[in-house]
Specification:
By secondary structure, this protein is an all-alpha fold. The protein has helices at 11-19, 24-37, 43-56, 65-76, 80-86, 95-110, 118-139, 149-165, 167-206.
C-alpha cells in the first residue's frame, strides 16, 4: 500500500506516544486551541461544542467519547468538530483526577462505598468486566453458560457511580471552559475579520 508505514512501530512506542505525544501535551493543547479558534462558525456554537466535548470526558463511556460528544453537540446545536477536539480535555494526564473526582462524587450521591481493596482491584474490575463480556459473547456459540458476576460488580462499583458522579463536575468543568473560551474565540474572530477587511481595503486602493 502507498500510505502504509515502512517501519512498523513497536507496541511500547505506540503506548508511549499515546501517554506522551510527540512534542508533549502542551504542544498538543496549543494545536487543539489553535484549531478551535479557527473553526468557521459562530463563537457561541463553537463554545457549545467545547462544552459537549469537555463534559463527555467526565463520563465512563471510554471509546465512545467522540460519538457521545457529537450527539450532545447536535442536541445543543454546537459545533461538531469543536466537540470532537474538546474530548482531548480527557487524556492520560487528566483521566486519573477526573476518575477520582467522579467516582467519589458518585459514591456520595448514591450513598454507597466501594468494596474492600478497591484501589488495588480497580483495574482488575475493568479487566474482569471485559473477560465476562468476551466469555458471554463466546457462550452464544458454545455450550458454556454466560457469567455476569464480574460485570455486575463493575456496574455497581465503577460504572454507575462514575456515570452519576461525573455529571456535576462535568457540568462545572464544561461551563467554566465555555465561558473561558467564548471571549477568546470571539476576540480571535473579530481580529481576523479586521485583518481581512484591511487586506480588502488595500486591494481596493491598489485597484
Amino acid at each position: 500500500m502507498v500510505f502504509k508505514r515502512r517501519d512498523r512501530r513497536p507496541i511500547w512506542q505506540v503506548v508511549l506516544r499515546f501517554i506522551w505525544p510527540r512534542g508533549g501535551w502542551g504542544r498538543a493543547a496549543l494545536y487543539v486551541r489553535h484549531r478551535l479558534r479557527r473553526l468557521p462558525d459562530t463563537p457561541e456554537k463553537i463554545c457549545r461544542g467545547i462544552w459537549a466535548g469537555v463534559f463527555v470526558t467526565f463520563t465512563p463511556f471510554y471509546g465512545l467519547h467522540f460519538l457521545v460528544s457529537a450527539i450532545i453537540a447536535m442536541v445543543m446545536r454546537g459545533n461538531l468538530l469543536a466537540a470532537l477536539l474538546s474530548t482531548f480535555f480527557g487524556n492520560p494526564l487528566t483521566y486519573v483526577p477526573i476518575g477520582i473526582v467522579s467516582l467519589n462524587m458518585g459514591y456520595w450521591l448514591l450513598g454507597t462505598r466501594p468494596g474492600e481493596g478497591f484501589h488495588e482491584s480497580f483495574l482488575q474490575k475493568f479487566s474482569g468486566a471485559g473477560r465476562d463480556l468476551w466469555h458471554n459473547f463466546s457462550a452464544m456459540f458454545t455450550p458454556e453458560k454466560a457469567e455476569w458476576a464480574r460485570l455486575a460488580r463493575f456496574y455497581h462499583e465503577v460504572f454507575l457511580p462514575y456515570l452519576v458522579g461525573g455529571i456535576i463536575p462535568g457540568i462545572v468543568a464544561a461551563t467554566v471552559c465555555y465561558y473561558l473560551a467564548l471571549p477568546v474565540v470571539r476576540a480571535y474572530q473579530n481580529r481576523r475579520k479586521k485583518m481581512l477587511r484591511a487586506k480588502l481595503e488595500k486591494l481596493r486602493a491598489r485597484g
